[in-house]
């Protein structure tokens, strides 16, 4: 019970310099970081998956998933500016609710960042292997598939994780600058798709608009419907929460965090809806439903083979930016958990020159690379959604608790209609969670039960993990 009630202050003044991160980011770094995290495998691959589950109404699925994420983004913007410390949802929950709930959130975020990053690395490895084969370089199957997928190790997936980790260790500002350049390239590729496909839209391709209905329901053992597609497409939207983990490294968090979080969400929602509408309108959804490369397939069917090649190349560029953003977010969450004593505290030291948590970045890269190199994570990628949904619910709840408990607290940014927006995010996330496959929800429950066991063992071994503190901000 004592651990459950233990809350911490997020004041950074008392921290030793070896455990403090360097503020070096502005809003023009944050928006590309958010877009880089959001625009990736989702829009390049899930358009086909969503069309298979919802038909032309996949456009509505994108809109619903985007609306839920927008509500969560508004909640994040207020809470992040109240507590401009690294760690994101984990830190906010620790400060507002307590240690045990914070542990559950941090443990759940392992599914978002580590599993998600590993899945993206495996996806990138598939594109990279195909590109190498096209230029005459053929890697053996033993080096392109993990041990659990019939090979020995997915070497390209492992290498890309360590390349991105090395980039992050050079410095936060430097890696953010490289990320911004790559984001411009991949957004330009999506603009190319819209420019080619939109003029070919045919109203007949939108009928029937909702062939599988609105609510999620099983057809041949697979959930179909607009909400079922939205629950999966949700993967295409999250990533903006990575920005909240950058709060401590932002020069002016009160101004820059809301601009970065809300700005990246608005940009990505507009891009996604335009891409989905262009895709569905240009050809029948049945022509690309379930395709692993729906955008390139559509362009080939429209007779634009060269544009399809550009889209495929852009996908190779897009995925490392997602890996960068997610690896950054996971390493910062681990870093703060170590700083709080919930992980070995020696991992919370930052490099003297770059002020980057090099040790934790290396440890995180090793964990992610091991998953990417050995496991067929495409089978459990939807688990990443459960971690994100948990974090969104937690942050929205923190917003409401602080509004009730400390209504007069000075707020740099106030979420408009907070008592509508935050409950909307909570209820939307819970409904999307229920719309996920049953086995995903069961595995999520098992994962968190395991997490509570790990926490109990750690607290038993380290009874003085953290000094009880009562200040929420």
Automatic annotation (TrEMBL):
It comes from the Bacteria. One of its GO terms (cellular component) is membrane. It is found in: Membrane. InterPro entries: AA/rel_permease1. One of its GO terms (molecular function) is amino acid transmembrane transporter activity. Keywords: Membrane, Transmembrane, Transmembrane helix, Transport. The chain crosses the membrane at residues 27-46, 58-77, 89-111, 118-139, 145-168, 180-201, 221-240, 261-285, 305-329, 356-377, 383-402, 414-434, 440-458. It is a multi-pass membrane protein. PANTHER family: CATIONIC AMINO ACID TRANSPORTER 4 (PTHR43243:SF4), INNER MEMBRANE TRANSPORTER YGJI-RELATED (PTHR43243). This is Amino acid permease.
